[in-house]
Design a protein that fits this description.
elongated; 29-stranded parallel sheet; 3 helices; mainly beta; 403 residues
Length: 403
């Protein structure tokens, strides 16, 4: 009898714990009676309460915003939390059109110091930014007030962003800073080409980011890669409209960190002003590096400048062009890049006269110029690239080492 009881007790404890875990991991629906959110109304408080409960849970939990359109003034969801959280957005969250109604900082929705977040559900974060773009003079006024970013991830670790859409952000759509091991898959960015300063995904000081099967159409860089980014993989991304995929700009501010281990593969860029590029400011305040950067299997469709290294990047004339960039670029490859371009200079490698680029490779480059401003060509300075299977007009012949 005692032996049977001894065998039964562990099973009873197991079932009790399982039942408790199941109850704790039940979906936290913001439209439930507990939270009181309703379609068409502001659910900021409902979502904040649901996050507080989820963050306090010792077992994984799920926050659900069901189908429908919901108003959301904005907030930053803060951790650390006690267990993983899935934030499932099935409907649409709408930001206020008037930026003055948003949080005082430049973030509409933020996630700060969260480990094990999954953002999913097929829904849309709608920044309603059209009015802000019209009033944005940042192209000529560098003292302009920063607009709100749709989604900011700060110190996000071991997390996933899956099958959701960022639409019409007032500023950058996504900004990842100090993040580690984050997967972005099936993500969509949607904004017209006239939207200003609306980078699709910006990454800085982050490690182990993987972006795949993502579609980005916007008014600025589809993906922009800032200082301190390491071990980034971008695969099967469709970009356009926009300004292309860019490393930088780098070398503008003190205390910038090196960039390394960047792999951009199997992407298609359509009707973008640039293709794949690395851009650094002249007259950098400190020495820095950008290394082990690889662009491979890229298709260009009517792209302005398909292949570009620009170490004299100086918008708004806010720099000393005569002073060389101090960002050392090395171990860079452009492989199997094909398609059409709308500028006759299809390949431009303008490296720093103070720190010439090293170990740059061009191979299997096949680009056709669709305009009427002369023959297709390449322009290179302060670099001796290795050339493999590249037609002479694109071969960056001056100082090049043929392979």
């Amino acid at each position: 009898m005692g032996l049977k009881l001894k065998n039964v007790l562990p099973m009873f404890v197991f079932l009790l714990l399982a039942s408790t875990a199941k109850a704790q991991s039940a979906a936290l629906d913001v439209t439930s009676a507990k939270y009181g959110g309703k379609p068409g109304s502001d659910i900021t408080q409902a979502l904040e309460k649901a996050w507080t409960d989820a963050c306090a849970s010792t077992t994984p939990s799920k926050i659900v915003v069901p189908k429908g359109i919901f108003k959301f003034v904005g907030t930053t969801f803060k951790g650390p939390c006690k267990a993983a959280i899935e934030f499932q957005l099935q409907g649409t969250l709408q930001a206020p059109v008037d930026g003055s109604q948003l949080p005082k900082d430049d973030t509409w929705i933020g996630f700060d110091h969260v480990d094990g977040l999954t953002l999913s559900g097929g829904g849309t974060f709608d920044g309603q930014g059209a009015q802000s773009w019209k009033n944005n003079d940042c192209n000529k006024n560098r003292q302009c007030k920063s607009k709100h970013i749709n989604l900011r991830f700060h110190v996000l670790t071991n997390s996933k962003i899956l099958d959701v859409t960022s639409k019409d952000s007032k500023n950058f759509h996504v900004n990842l800073q100090k993040c580690e091991k984050v997967e972005i898959n099936g993500f969509t960015v949607s904004a017209p080409k006239e939207s200003m300063n609306t980078d699709g995904i910006h990454i800085g000081r982050s490690t182990g980011i993987n972006i795949t099967a993502t579609t980005i159409g916007t008014g600025d860089d589809c993906i922009s890669i800032g200082d301190g980014t390491k071990d980034l993989t971008v695969t099967n991304v469709t970009c356009g409209p926009g300004h292309g995929i860019a490393i930088g700009s780098l070398g503008r501010y003190p205390e910038e960190e090196p960039v390394s281990g960047i792999n951009i593969k199997k992407c298609t860029l359509t009707d973008t002003t640039n293709g794949v590029r690395i851009k650094t400011w002249p007259a950098s305040p400190i020495d820095s590096t950008a290394s082990d950067i690889h662009f491979e299997d890229i298709t260009m469709v009517n792209v302005g400048n398909p292949i570009l290294i620009d170490q004299e990047y100086c918008p708004w004339n806010e720099c000393k062009k005569g002073v060389p960039s101090k960002v050392k670029i090395s171990n860079v490859s452009f492989k199997n890049i094909k398609g059409t371009c709308t500028d006759p200079v299809a390949v431009k490698l303008a490296c720093s006269p103070g720190l010439p680029c090293e170990n740059v490779e061009l191979s299997d480059i096949d680009l056709k110029y669709t305009g009427d401003k002369g023959p297709i060509t390449s322009v290179c300075s302060n670099v001796k690239p290795t050339i493999t299977r590249v037609a002479q007009p694109l071969a960056c012949a001056t100082g090049a080492a043929a392979a």
